[in-house]
Design goal:
Blueprint: H1 2-15, E1 31-40, E2 43-55, E3 71-73, E4 76-77, E5 84-90, H2 101-109, E6 113-117, H3 135-144, H4 149-161, H5 168-186, E7 194-204, H6 206-215, E8 218-220, H7 229-240, H8 252-258, E9 269-271, E10 277-283, E11 301-306, H9 314-323, E12 328-333, H10 343-346, H11 349-354, H12 356-359, H13 362-381, H14 385-390, E13 399-404
Parallel strand pairs: 1-3, 5-6, 5-7, 7-10, 10-11, 11-12
Antiparallel strand pairs: 1-2, 2-4, 2-6, 8-9, 12-13
Length: 405
């Protein structure tokens, strides 16, 4: 009886492919990628533009020999359903524009143009040249950090983190949107492929912070209680000895509380929001804002994060969700850590062995990221009712969802 039951389920899956685990097409839509450079904040950085393609030839693009993907360099663009909404992707601290290829390529197959750049903190991977931080250093820092994300970050990126101010990140994204829209007007091959009225942003970790910043999160540091003397004295002390800081002296929560002590924010209310952005999806975001920063966000937000120890704390993210006006969604993924979203980490054997996000049900976890991001942006950038209906429910046993459409 049991054998017959499972045989029946198997046959039904063959007859009704919508019952299959992934729900993906057998022949994925072709993807093109083009590489550019542009001047931003006094430096030149590489930019990748992914787009739906008509046909592809030759070998798939090698992503600087760092990850495997299925995009083809300079493939002929598909204008049959253009213009497409634009998604800007912002990588995590020390990551790069190629860090989350599976996530980006899925959005392109869903009918989006995606752009990504290397921020100035790029180190563990890079879109061009060699990474500043070797795989060996990453492994060593992870081991020394003892599974604590804050300590590992401090060991790897002390110079970048200790300054506390990351305002260059949302400035990067605003300029990247400017650049993308100029490309849309002038590029011989891609002219007219982007719909400038439908723009979304997604980012991981510090890129999640960046995503919330361009969505309109504010540094509201007007009230003196946001910068009490004792807290600001501690901030000055930490900044003065930033080159000598030990990992145990660094704490994301304390950093957030010290933000208003910085001279550029003290007594002011500053926002890096971009009104051109219509929907955002931060992934495991670093919450480096003072309290009350998120009630100013008036666009749809979906946050996806994990419950693993090697992940950003859930408590600040829950507070973000509560402050948001909505539409808003918060997904907590069981046994998913901070690096599950990155193809770059997957290439490191110890990560696949020791990080829970890669050890079990990795295919399902990838699909969760793909399906929820695709349907979220479909709902709010394309007005797709099916997408809106999809993101109201969990669908997977690993997903705990809070939703206020």
């Amino acid at each position: 009886m049991t054998k017959r039951y499972y045989l029946g389920i198997f046959l039904l899956a063959l007859i009704f492919p919508g019952w299959a685990f992934s729900g993906k097409k057998l022949e994925p839509a072709p993807i093109g990628i083009k590489l550019y450079h542009f001047e931003i904040q006094g430096r030149t950085t590489p930019v990748a533009v992914w787009y739906p393609a008509v046909k592809v030839e030759g070998k798939a693009f090698d992503y600087n020999q760092q990850v495997k993907g299925s995009a083809y360099l300079s493939a002929e663009p598909d204008f049959s359903k253009a213009p497409y909404p634009l998604i800007v992707f912002s990588h995590g601290m020390g990551g790069c524009g190629y860090q989350s290829v599976f996530y980006v390529e899925n959005l392109v197959r869903a009918g989006y143009v995606v752009v990504a750049m290397d921020h100035k903190d790029s180190a563990m991977c890079t879109m061009e040249g060699k990474p500043k931080i070797t795989t060996g250093k990453i492994i060593l820092a992870t081991l020394k950090g003892g599974g604590d994300l804050s300590k590992t970050v401090m060991l790897l990126f002390k110079d970048s983190v200790a300054d506390i101010d990351f305002s260059y990140r949302p400035k990067d994204i605003k300029e990247l949107i400017d650049w993308s829209l100029k490309l849309n007007q002038s590029d011989e091959e891609l002219k007219g492929i982007i719909d400038p009225e439908r723009i979304g942003v997604s980012g991981h970790s510090l890129g999640g912070f960046t995503t919330l910043a361009v969505a309109g999160a504010s540094y509201d540091c007007v009230a003196p209680e946001k910068w009490p003397q004792d807290r600001c004295e501690k901030a000055e002390e930490l900044l003065a000895k930033k080159d000598e800081l030990k990992p145990e002296e660094f704490n994301l929560i304390e950093m957030r509380e010290m933000i208003c002590c910085l001279e550029q924010y003290k007594g002011k209310k500053i926002s890096y929001g971009d009104e051109r952005v219509k929907a955002v999806l931060p992934l495991g975001p670093a919450i480096i804002f003072p309290s009350g920063a998120f009630d100013n966000i008036k666009i749809p937000v979906m946050v996806i994060t994990g419950t693993g120890r090697f992940e950003v704390p859930i408590e600040p993210i829950q507070k973000v969700y509560e402050e948001l006006a909505g539409p808003k969604y918060l997904l907590e993924l069981e046994k998913v850590d901070h690096m599950t979203i990155t193809d770059i980490a997957y290439q490191i054997l110890p990560a696949r062995v020791f990080l829970p996000g890669f050890r079990t049900k990795y295919k399902m976890k990838k699909e969760i990221y793909e399906n929820f991001s695709e349907n979220f942006f479909n709902a709010y950038l394309k007005g797709d009712k099916e997408g809106l209906d999809y993101i109201k429910d969990a669908h997977y046993p690993l997903v705990k969802i809070q939703a206020q459409p």
